[in-house]
Input
Amino acid sequence: MISTRKAEPMASDAALEPGHSSMSPQEAENLLVDLAAVFLSNSTQPNASSNLFGDEEPEEQLPKANELYKALVEQIPAVIFMAHLDGGIGEAYVSPQIEATLGFSQEEWLEDPIRWYQQIHPEDKARWSVEAAQMFLSGTALRSSYRVLARDGRVVWFHCEAKMIRRKDGRPWFIHGVGFDITELKRIEEALQEERNVVSAILHTVGALVVVLDPQGRIVRFNRACEQVSGYTFAEVEKKYFWDLCGAPEETERFKIVVEQLRAEHSTKDYETSWVARHGSRSLIAWSSTILPGGDGSPAYIIATGIDITERKRLEKAILEISADEQRRIGQDLHDGLGQHLTGIAFMTKAQEQKLTEKGLAEAAEAARIVKLVNEAINKTRELAHGLLPVVSEADGLMSALKRWSAEVEELFNISCRLQIDQPVLIHDSAMSTHLYRIAQESVNNAIKHGQARNITINLSASNGHGTLKIENDGTSLLEPVPNGSGMGMQIMNYRARMIGGSLRVESHVSGGMVVSCFFPVAKDNRELKGSIDDH
Output
């Protein structure tokens, strides 16, 4: 319904001129009250809406629309509104959807020009006043969302799009706009925000490290655990490449390779790497990364979760070192204690045998059997000692131990087991030598037991600070490479490799059989031994 009356020029006409400065909420409210006065009337004209949609064409009247246009407007699922601003005439229109949305009929809504302002939510009134007044002053379109109170007290969210049209001389002519009910959208947004808040709370309180990357490997989320371990805030690392947090170049390359593999294979990757914190400390992190696909199936994000295993690895290393020390102690005791004791018994028994033989007594034969049994016990003791203490502490201890082991394998299993060392490899760390020996021992045992290998080659080499221990066999070849960490023996070999700062790779040989390779660091001053190492 439209209210029309002749009115005196508004006190705010000058304020509506273009270029008027910004105002306070109170000034904005006063301006809107003056504008609403144009539409106040003590009488109603039921057919007045024809002035907006009819065929009359008074000078500079609002743009005309026929009945078809009016019908179309009233079918739009939104509240359409128009208002003619004139120094003496006020005409207004609101579509019937106002009743379905807010519970007020067209007549009720139009008979009170300030009803809209009265129904604005109290918390949004000041903002609405300022933004609406600015539209009147500057002519810029109004695009904003507000809460409106319906007749029954419900709160309805409206997204409003309104624009003021000016005459050629710059004076305000009319406004038109549309309001969309976005209550359900706001409800969904609030639910999503609540869910995001819960996820964020979990993300920041969980003890694990959580990093979210874009498909290129740039950081988009970085939880509090990551901040504590790395010493960097999220603001400092946002949009930076994940691998920029790594200290060693080899770690950087590993991260890049993992990201490429995740993008290409859409699989989960587990790996360990070091983080160098801002203050220089180094932490060992066990990561598990996976792809979060987008709507089209392409990678949208990479989710990496990590656990700081620095302390766990330190304790594991300490336990392993204690175990190795205890083995060495027992081996030394067997060799130097029990072995020497049995050797003494053997000498005494041999002397007694000789005396009995000289006297021609039958007990001499019994004494000879005792000597034989004692010597067998001495040999068993030496074998046990060698098993517990396979590598001597000298720098060439690993080479000597591998030489002895390959010969024993050939003798025990009647197969070929050759040791190849082109240049002597000196290892001054006895713990590293022992780990490498155990890796070779486990690989050879697996080749014989599971692969039925008949030919085994052990190759030891080093150059430029990098060493390689490679065990090849002609046994049963697997169709797929053995994944690191499958099987207890493989887990132990992997663990030993990591303990010495190296890595393990297991793969099928191109000509059949398997190849186990352990890569490890060695001192760059590794010098050649005098003499040579015989191949077997």
